[in-house]
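Input sequence (193 aa), recorded before submission:
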Amino acid sequence: MLTSLPNLLTLSRIVVIPMVVGLFYIDGSSARWLSCALFIAAAITDWFDGYVARSRNQVSTFGRFLDPIADKLLVVAVLFMMVAFDRLGPVSFLPALVIVLREILVSGLREFLAEVRVGLPVSRLAKWKTGIQMIAIPVLLVGDAATFMPTRLIGEAGLWVAALLTLVTGWDYLQSGIRHIRANPVPPPSPPP
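Predicted structure, token format:
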């Protein structure tokens, strides 16, 4: 199933990461527009791989495992690069940090809950967060190359909205995780014989 179309689309998101990162090292508007286009193409595959998997009955364990990882790798890599290359204002480091920390929190919760065989479904609000984030980031990637509109202002405002939704959804996921943690305590170690 590794070579199914949905899995190839997911893998393509990982393959595009070094290309987008590499474009940060190239000056000029063309590099910014190309990084934006690559990010948008990757974001589209995020929706398309799930649609294709469900419509063609090609949902796989590998795809379910790799899809959220590919998303997180792409978003975190680009946010790190924007901070490193001063593409965010000093105050906008905060929403970027919130987004990265939430991704780590949710990954840890999913790992724990998988051990106790509990799924953590994606909420509707989390989908909105992802959508806003996937609009804000490419706008920030273009940045000053789009002279016809205040892209940095628009992108940073979108990042703040995504961060606020990130806090809400992260809190929801944390509460759900804590309920399962309390319901599945670790048994005390056996006394030595």
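Checked by second reader. Residues 5-182 form a domain with the Four Helix Bundle (Hemerythrin (Met), subunit A) fold (CATH 1.20.120.1760).
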